Amino acid sequence: MRTRLTLARDGDALVARLAPSQAAAMYEALSHLAEQDYGDTELILLVGAGREAVEALVGRLAGRRTESFDLRLTIGELHMVHSALTAAPTLFLERGGLFAEEPFNIRLGFYRENFDALASALVEAAGQV
């Protein structure tokens, strides 16, 4: 998965140029959290937004893409994506705090390292705008 991405300022929002795999990883992280039996309080703690906002962003990321595309995100939505990429792996901790790589990979379709690298790239790209 390509982990580098670019952000460009568009007023008070940012436009992210996303490869299909990047959008898919963001979608999987957010949708997996949205599938959990969390109320708004838990989702706000995890990603900084309630169910309605999470599901709206999931809808914008949904769909099979074959080419890179631009996605306009507010800082809050960018925070949601970053938080989802870093929070989703915590749902795959087994007894003793060990990370369960195989169930993570099966359910989300990526390796944890992909999520970590993409989250890091988001912060780096945001720092360059």
The SS-based structural class is alpha+beta
Range of helix content: 55-70%
How many strand elements? 3
Task: State mean pLDDT (0 to 100 scale).
Answer: 95
User: What proportion of the residues form beta strands (DSSP E)?
Assistant: 5-15%
Contiguous runs where pLDDT drops below 50 for at least 5 residues: none
Radius of gyration: 14 Å
- CA-to-CA gap between the ends? 23 Å
Order of H and E elements: EEHHHEHHH
Largest sheet: 3 strands, antiparallel
The coarse silhouette is globular
Number of helices: 6
Name the strands of the widest sheet in spatial order.
1-2-3
Describe this structure in words.
The chain is 57% helix and 13% strand. The chain contains six helices and three strands. The chain has helices at residues 20-35, 40-47, 51-61, 75-87, 101-108, 112-128; strands at 6-10, 13-18, 69-74. A three-stranded antiparallel β-sheet has the order 1-2-3. The longest helix is centred in the C-terminal third of the chain and has 17 residues, at 112-128. The model has no long low-confidence stretch (mean pLDDT 95).
